[in-house]
Amino acid sequence: MPIFTGRPVARVLVICASLLLLCATETAAQASSPAATVSPLMHEVTDGYGRTVRIPLNPSRIVSLAPSLTETLYALGVEDRLVGDTDYCDYPPEAQKKPKVGGVINPNLEQIAVLHPDLVLVTKEGNLLDTVRALDTLGIPTYATDARTINQIISSTQKLADVLNVSSAGKVLGDDLQRRLAALQERLGGAPPRRVLFIVWPEPLISIGKDTFIADALRRAGAASIVDSTQDWPQVSLEEVAHLQPDYLVLAASHTGSADNDFEALANRPGWQILDAVRNRRFTVVSDAIIRPAPRMISVIEELAHKLHPDLFPETPGTEKETAPANNPSPNPFQPKPMALGTATWTCSLESPCVL
Amino acid sequence: MRPLTLGRLFLRCSILAVILFVVVVIALKLGAVQVSLYGLGRDLIRVLLRQSSSISSDYGLIVLNIRLPRILLAIVVGASLSVAGASFQALLRNPLADPYVLGISSGAAVGSIVALMVENQLALSPEFAGLITPFGAFLGAAVTIAAVYYLGRRDGQIDSTTLLLGGIITASFLSAIIMFLMSTLAGGNLRGASYWMMGSLSTLPPESLLFLLGIGFFVATGAIYTTASDLNLLLAGEKEAMHLGVDVRRVQIVVYLAASILTGLAVSVSGAIGYVGLLVPHAMRMIFGSDHRMLIPSSALGGAIALVIADTIARTVAAPSDLPVGAVTAMVGAPFFIYLLRRRLS
Question: Could you tell me if the ipTM is greater than 0.90?
């Protein structure tokens, strides 16, 4: 029986195995020629990544990979073209009934592909570049928005409207939002801004940096964040907050309880009594739309301005000083939604910025 | 045990290859979107007949463009990690050595992250940029092995317990570095920390990358295979092998570099997937014996089988969400590690 010696056999083996793998890769390469959705009406646009992307002139099967984009599509009145969205797309409630493609950070490529989208929308902030690259490999066009200020939220909404071939709807929406913002600025006039702590997540305490759209929203609502960080989602210590003593605490509504419950949960955490704002119950719970860069943001800014400066808005009912429970009648009713955002916010803040 | 013959080697490898093929077909069928076995078979035959154009675009897209590349990635990564594991076990003469347990995967992950950050700064041409991450991962792996090797030495000899402890501490230290890099310096587009620490095959690899991985795997595994007989003699000890005419230094350097390449390649595309490099070579040793001429090819095939199965579980168990594949391998691998440790102690 011939006992073989290592080397020649090794060579034979390596060669055989290489051939096998080459065949396999070639098959894959052949197979993965882009599933060309051959549409003659394509055009090139520049998106939020600064890329030039080729997309259909009139996209008719859209998948949205961010709750803010889903909301924007509804606001533009093109929801009938939305064929799929993420597990976190819960506003408006009808958006929950659209076919789901998984999470924002880990969408399921198979679920996206089977919907045959001619355009997938992503946000530069919330989605991963890997997702975009994978969709590129599959030949599915993507368009990314990028909004880091309130003005950019409005302009990127209008640009998205242009991309979706509904420019006039975008213009109407954008003008309305700008008009409401201008009216609000006039109303606030030179009122001194309230010094607030915006709480993204209480434990560990995560607040906002100055370059986020939330910081911009606070400024527009006549408030200023006491946290002055260049990081977008800085973790801050309670000590530092106690040193700065904010006038108000601002937090986004959870879906699990009333505004008072949200505040009580916070106030009962060890150490929080150190804050004047906690002892004097000076807090404001606003709609969770504040963490989504979508048109609804303008309503949140109005809501926040009314709650922080009730003296400037005497005609608005139910905005008594300090506490304003979420079920108060206000110009912008935000009904609690069934999905628990708590978990969503948590996963996001661990993995990537908390922007949905 | 009967001597290993060329015929027996091929027979055993063929059996493993057939098992791999069956596992791949099953993996192609399972997923978030339902595909019938009949449709799958018909499409596969069309691919073999080079008539892929006649495949219905719907399932062709999902099976051939999404699942197949991911399965090929699992094959290359699983094979690389297993061969790397078998090599480290021989090199360090410690059956509990594994790229993940010894912190080598974490070192490769740190290398990848740093390379990705550099790549983002430099704005290089895409072809060149694709090479930086695997190279960074290789450097990270190579430096970490060297460090763990010197941590594990006592009086000029490798001490098994010290080596393992050194490796585990190194892994924990490097995980802290990963967390630090992810939460301070890195931008949002470097994937999450859990991707690097737990491992995931969910990013769709471009074909050029799969090709690079395949070439790298065969070059490195081929290099290790040339030392297979010497590795058998090394099991008896460095001095003994030297007396038998083995160029111990050369063998060690070849295996060290090749195993670093394998770990680096695997981690740069999938993060730190643990325990494959521990579990598979052990299973293969139990079945086929510890002759490295058999152990290395069988570990490659066995690693591919194991990771394709693990990734299929990761894809389907919580569909449409993806579980990190490292969570699946660790759930099986960590108890097995404890079992091996207990058995050695008794």
Answer: no
